[in-house]
Design brief:
Layout: E1 41-49, H1 50-62, E2 67-70, E3 95-103, H2 107-114
Antiparallel strand pairs: 1-3, 2-3
C-alpha cells in the first residue's frame, strides 16, 4: 500500500495516508522517471594540460561537486615523468585536450572554482 500523492509506503491494514488524508493505493509506489543526466551537463572547463586538469578536479572534489571528464589521455599513468613523450614527435603526456562537465545546477559554483585555470584567449 502507498499514498498516491506523497508516495509514502504503508503496511497492510492502513487505508488512508496519515499526512495527505487520501485513500491508499495497492502495491508499491511507481519508480520515478529516470532523467538522462547527459542532457543536464554543461562544460565548465576545457583543459589542455594535465596539471590544470588535476587542479580543477581537486577543486571540484573539495567543493563536493560531481563532474565528468571527457578526452582524458589514457597514457597518463602515475609515475611517468612530466614531459615524457612516446615516440619521435609524439605529443608529451602532460598535454591533453579534456573537458570537465558538471550538472547545470552546479555550473555557477564550478565555473568560479575553475576560472583561474582557464588558458588566456588570444
Amino acid at each position: 500500500m502507498y499514498c498516491p500523492k506523497c508516495k509514502t509506503e504503508y503496511r497492510d491494514g492502513f487505508l488512508e495516508c496519515s499526512d495527505c488524508r487520501v485513500p491508499l493505493a495497492p502495491g508499491f509506489p511507481p519508480e520515478p522517471p529516470r532523467e538522462n543526466i547527459t542532457e543536464q551537463l554543461v562544460t565548465v572547463l576545457e583543459a589542455h594540460d594535465t596539471f590544470a586538469l588535476s587542479l580543477a578536479k581537486a577543486s571540484l572534489e573539495e567543493a563536493g561537486i560531481n563532474y565528468i571528464v571527457s578526452g582524458e589521455d589514457p597514457r597518463n599513468i602515475a609515475g611517468v615523468p612530466p614531459g615524457f613523450a612516446v615516440g619521435i614527435g609524439a605529443t608529451p603526456l602532460w598535454k591533453c585536450s579534456c573537458q570537465i562537465q558538471v550538472a547545470s545546477q552546479d555550473e555557477a559554483e564550478a565555473r568560479a572554482l575553475v576560472e583561474p585555470l582557464e588558458e588566456p584567449h588570444a
